[in-house]
Design a protein that fits this description.
Length: 99
């Protein structure tokens, strides 16, 4: 898999920002088939940092419903895989550089 296929996008939420500041942990949305070694190599090559640890979790899909004139429309949001990457001490990733 290519780096662009493995790393889909960084997760920029309040919880993710708190982890970045306190523990030097960065969250990424990654491909479902990517394993920890592939994620580690992708982050190291794309951001030029050394990765100490990678933890992954699969977020399950959720049922969603909304009310309209025609009635209640139900559907599902797709599940995805999330990776928490611990960067080595003293190194940082600037996620806002490309915005």
């Amino acid at each position: 898999m290519k780096v662009s296929e493995i790393l889909i996008k960084p997760i920029l939420t309040e919880k993710a920002n708190a982890l970045q500041e306190k523990r030097n942990i960065y969250a990424f949305r990654v491909a479902r088939k990517a394993n920890k070694l592939e994620i580690k190599k992708a982050v190291e090559s794309f951001y030029s940092v050394s990765v100490a640890e990678v933890r992954t979790t699969v977020v399950p899909s959720k049922a969603k419903a909304r009310s309209t004139k025609a009635g209640i429309i139900t559907g599902r949001k797709p599940g995805y895989k999330k990776a928490y990457v611990v960067v080595a001490e003293g190194e940082t990733i600037d996620l806002y550089a490309n915005i």
